[in-house]
Amino acid sequence: MTRYVLLLLTLTCWACAASQPVSRSPVKFCVIDSEFGEESDWVLGQLEASAEALVRLMDNPAVAPPGRVEVSLRRDPGSEGIGGWAGPTSVGFVGDGWPREPIREWVVTHELVNLFAAHYGGRGGFPSDWWSDGRSPFPAYVAGLVLKQTGCTEAAAWLRESSSSEPDHVMYWELHRRFGFELFARALKMLRADDIDLGEIEPPWPYPNRVRSAYTIAYLSLASVGRSKAASRGRVKSGQLRAPGTRRSFCLGRAFLQALGPLGAPAPGSALDDVGVM
Predict the structure, then answer these.
(1) What is the largest CA-CA distance in the chain?
(2) From CA 235, how far away is CA 245, in angstroms rounded?
(3) What is the distance, to the nearest Å, from the Cα of residue 186 to the centroid of all Cα atoms in its chain?
(4) Is the four-CA dihedral 254, 255, 257, 262 of positive or negative sign?
(5) Is the peptide bond before 65 cis (omega within 30 degrees of 0)?
(6) What are phi and psi for residue 35, nearest 5 degrees?
(7) Rg of the Cα atoms in the chain
(8) How far from the centroid of its chain's Cα atoms is residue 99's Cα?
(9) How buried is 157 (Cβ within 10 angstroms: 0-12 exposed, 13-18 middle, 19+ buried)?
(10) Of 124, 132, 221, nearest in space to 169 by CA
(11) Digit-coded pLDDT (tens) for 116-138
(12) Could you give the 3-state DSSP secondary structure of residue 122?
């Protein structure tokens, strides 16, 4: 009789465990502070799903994703909008409420994109005219991809439509059409491998800087076409740039610049007029 009871208990425990949702997220998210109660319970699931999608997009098994990310949600009754922020190991959100709706799905995903891009790029300091507060064309583009992959199709469609007339946003989607997200994943790998901190170029973020934009264009161009023979020999010629503090040099790809050029480079930091094409 005891044997049957133990067997029944074992089966019952197994069934209970099997009924619990199992997170496949490569990142452990810890809500350390939430002032919205059950209204914000959905945030954790969206962060976990977004982390899975971002690891796939970054496609860099050599770099482990962030191990632990702290999450903070704060209520601001007087807020006229919503906001968010990201640090190396944390994300946070603020507003007068946090129900699940497209705009909040976007903010949650957007801030995780910022965290992942800095993590996989190794450093920060991305050009403010490519990644500026208030416009943020690059993380908005990536958030659109992630939202679609995580089933937030309404939010993805709203985000794409809301920026469809903005040249800096359109630029990223055109580059995506030509090269896919692989362009950005490879560029981030190279930035990390070269231990480049674009923030070391003066003046620092958030000020636009032509040199910083030139290096961004160079890394993206290199990611689109690969290194030239001249670059492999360490020779810098017209139309090439050398990354500060490294021996890497770049040949700007014609296909990449043709994709970028008709849309207009991000102002005021563009270096397209200063750099030739080889």
Answers:
(1) 86
(2) 15
(3) 13
(4) positive
(5) no
(6) -105, 15
(7) 22
(8) 24
(9) middle
(10) 132
(11) 998 999 876 665 556 655 678 88
(12) coil
Burial class (CB in 10 A: 0-12, 13-18, 19+), 167: middle
Q: Can you tell me the distance from the alpha carbon of 229 to that of 275, in angstroms, rounded to the nearest whole number?
A: 19
> Taking each helix axis from N to C terminus, what angle separates 137-149 and 167-179, rounded to the nearest 10 degrees?
50
| Entry pTM | 0.76
Mean pLDDT score across all residues of the chain: 75
* Tokens coding 243: 């990354």
11 vs 190 pLDDT, higher one:
190
Residue-range domain boundaries for the chain: 21-101, 122-278
Q: Evaluate whether 101 touches 39 at the Cβ level (below 8 Å).
A: no
CA separation, residue 57 to residues 142, 168, 180, 253 (Å): 9, 21, 10, 23
CB atoms within 10 A of CB 55: 20
**Distance between CA 155 and CA 12 in Å, rounded?**
40
Would you list the DSSP string of 129-184?
TTS-TTT-HHHHHHHHHHHHHTT-HHHHHHHHHHTTT-HHHHHHHHHHHHH-THHH
Task: State the CB neighbour count (10 A cutoff) for residue 3.
Answer: 7
For the chain, count helices (H), then strands (E).
Answer: 10, 6
DSSP state of 204: P
Which candidate, 255, 113, 269, places its Cα nearest to that of 206? 269
